Input
Amino acid sequence: MNLIECTQLSKNYSGKNVLNQVNISLKAGAPIALVGPNGAGKTTLFSIICGYISASSGSVKILGESPNSAKLRGRLSALPQDAQLDPDITIISQLMLFAQLQGLSKAAAKHEAMRVLELVDLAQVVHEKPKSLSHGMGKRVSIAQALIGTPDVVLLDEPTAGLDPANAKKVREIVRQQSASSTFIISSHNLDELEKLCDQVIYLENGSLKQSLSIQSKQNVEYLTLVMTETDMQALTNEVSSFEGVINVTTSTDKQMIIEYSHQHGFQLETQLLTLFAQHQWQYKSILKGRTLEDTLFS
Output
């Protein structure tokens, strides 16, 4: 059974297609990225999955059930970008309420509230009110609320937007740690953040599904992305293009090179590159296995 199955899913507002016959099949596992420009239909898709709004046509199944099915209670969770807890009610009281709404007893709800706060490393704020927290801490408490009951599916909308690097890193760690028990679907414009977390990417544009792919290719062709410093890029391109197994080399003005090569030559290629750098005293900034998410989507 698929985690989420969308079939010919469409949504119209006043004759305008916001989603246009979208077909998506998602399986449980590693975090999944949902990307696209503003107005692409990402929020609408999330809203239909959650049962906030109905589709105009087509169908969607979550864990084999229709949105708003009672069987999904506690199994599907969503955190909108600007969702906030009540600023004047203690965190423990609010988290206990959400847990009790899932059917937990008062004692079990308190235990669950403490559990999710510990997951986000904020057990110390249990008796605080949200208005006393920093933006980053508030976001982590909201994520804790989304984790109540260990849902099978967690939808996160821009979870690191506006966060300082330390809190953004903490959010990534939370997602990684909880991915063993929940599948996260993350909508964001921050491609750098997404490629640190996700492998599968769903790309929407103008309400249509444009791409559904893996950042890291599982086919016979693989990629290395080099970022160089002070280097003769033309000379480097000529040298690398002559290596056995190299299919194509592309460069950009910011000293970045993408090498497309046959997967059976991977170890040999990496060794040749390091030898070449030493011979010419060329300095590299980074070597990335695969392509960046930006290059994968837009090249």
Observations:
- Residues 92 and 126 are 5 Å apart (CA to CA).
- The two ends are 33 Å apart (CA to CA).
